[in-house]
Design goal:
The protein has about 400 residues and is an alpha/beta fold. The protein is built from 15 helices and 13 strands. The strands form four sheets. A four-stranded parallel sheet has the order 3-2-4-5, with helices on both faces. Strands 7-6-8-9 form a four-stranded parallel sheet, with helices on both faces. It has a three-stranded antiparallel sheet with strand order 10-12-13, with helices on one face. Strand 4, helix 5 and strand 5 form a beta-alpha-beta unit. Helix 3 crosses helix 14 and helix 9 crosses helix 10. About 5% of the residues have low confidence.
Amino acid sequence: MLATLRTAAFSAAVTAIAFTPGNALAQKKYDTGATDTEVKIGNIIPYSGPASAYGLIGKTEEAYFKMINDKGGINGRKINFVSYDDAYSPPKAVEQVRKLVESDEVLVVFNPLGTPSNTAIQKYLNGKKIPQLFVATGATKWNDAKGFPWTMGWQPSYQSEAQIYAKYLLKEKPDAKIAILYQNDDFGKDYLKGTKDGLGAKASSMIIVEESYEISEPTIDSHIVKIKAANPDVLLIYATPKFGAQTIKKTAELGWKPLQIMTNVSASVGAVMQPAGFENSQGVLSAAYAKDAADSQWKSDPGMMKWSEFIDKYMPGADRTDSALVYGYGAAQTLAKVLEMCGDDLSRANVMKQAANLKDFTPDTLLPGVKINTSATDFAPISQLQMQRFKGEKWELFGEIISGDVASH
């Protein structure tokens, strides 16, 4: 009898515990890579090789999470950030990501950089249901919630950006004769498609030349000479930095003055406009979604003041004109927001669910008016940009914030 009473009392106690409101024990949920005290985040980025300049993004993210940990972590958990060099090589990317997943046992792979590397690891991560979150490339294919539910982009897609240039031309130069110079790969073709979609029915009459180049070519001067012969008055430069600089320089040497529009990825003052010659770069257009740390107009901006304090304390001596410092901070701040939203459910499925539920989130580094929005069917967090014109030795923003929404796959 006594034993039965004891059992009944014990069951009642268990039931009481289970139904206590706000009982944390019942709600904590972890997948590999998360515990009561830690969240393990994996990353690959080129610290060496042809794209090693981007390595600074990884270093910025590492410093950002150190700042978070110094402040007590996220929901009481410290971030353990494990970042490896993939040298911008797809086979190396696969090897490093397998290591992150199988031996380091990370919860997510965050902000892996480059279209080739991300393409190489996408099937593997989706097969294992591991978030490939906020990839650092603007290819449109990362916005495919149905086909690849574990992959999500971050920055504006190349097609969105190209649509914005098309909208600008339709409004400002509706009779333009357009030449498009593009890199013959996914990157260049995304811009080409976005431009045609943006121009719509007028694409066939406005575009008079489409000229592609291979990334292996040492110089594209002959392409510029060929384009000039068709006499367009607008030149869209869908190129990576080295070729962007060559194009601006060559058009100036030819004494040719079309309106030039340059990709956001090649709008770097230090890597493109300066080598091309500031005198040759005047009036070139591009678009931006993040604040430029080299621009004095953000000196008293609250977000950039926070960024500046972070650089002073955690990355002293870093070159503040390098946009990688702004990019890495914004991406890391977005991941921190998602982890905060996850609360005590740090399952991989919930990480993706929260990442797909960002509403008007504004990292410190984005331009005023540019907001991050995602949904279960929209895996493209940023789709707004503002036009900018090169003047003197810097970019000047103008016009409204424009959306270039590209339908998801």
